[in-house]
Amino acid sequence: MSIITKPILVSQQAGVVSLFLNRPERRNALSLELLEKLGKALSTEVGEDTVAVIIGGVDGSFSAGADLADLSGTPADLAMDDAIEEVTGKILKLPVPVIAAIDGPCLGGAFDLALSCDQRIASVDAIFQVPAARLGLLYNPRSIVRMQQRLGRDTVFRLLALGERLDADAALRAGIVSRVVEGASYEAAQAIARNANGNIRSAMTATKRLLNAIDAPDYDPADWEALRREMLSSPERQAAVVSEKKRRGR
Questions:
Q1: Global pTM?
Q2: Helix (H), strand (E) at residue 16
Q3: pLDDT for residue 205 is more than 50
Q4: List of E strands, 87-151
Q5: What is the arrangement of strands in the sheet containing 119-123, beginning at the earlier edge strand?
Q6: Could you tell me if 8 and 22 are in contact, meaning their C-beta atoms sit under 8 angstroms apart?
Q7: Whole-number Å distance between alpha carbons of 95 and 210
Q8: What is the structure's pLDDT at 5?
Q9: Fewer CB within 10 A of the end CB, N or C, for the chain?
């Protein structure tokens, strides 16, 4: 008898949407089906009242990377690259912070997924590795560009060309993770996500998009200065300033 489970579990609490990779029998490996469902959840579960998104994995693992059962060792494997690229693109474009809660393995394509998040919280048992060269693979060039912009050439070379395996502390020193915590990472990710409560959505979204745009070849400071000036007189900002003055008794 086969047991059918959902590859993505969804939880919502106090404006925080949590998405869990749910293939414990495969250490949450990224199958094409899982990536499709994760992309759909990123599109449908984030609403106007969402303040943050957390992506984690069940059963003490983030993800063992691309599911080898969906790979053939032929150009058909570009479908996996495209599926990962679609998910990372959606994470980058979400209007709210996205936090990766990383326990255990974060390997291969899962590293790409985690790096597209705005923060990465790792437990002390987290492990990071991208064994693309071991599989005879030149990793997706679009992903490598993003990795090098965020991490620098030295760290990307260690991961992709050498296939080095980094523990949580080494990943913290390399700038891969935002912080390392004792115990499960999800509770720490929740506490960080709650910090977004009370923020003005438009300001939070603009800040995230500016940070993502700075390294792009078409980055134009004038466009962002114009947006900044426009937001200075927005009704949301004016209401927030009035509220803050009342709170401080001024």
A1: 0.93
A2: strand 16-21
A3: yes
A4: 98-102, 105-107, 119-123, 127-129
A5: 8-13, 16-21, 52-57, 98-102, 119-123, 179-181
A6: yes
A7: 11
A8: 62
A9: N
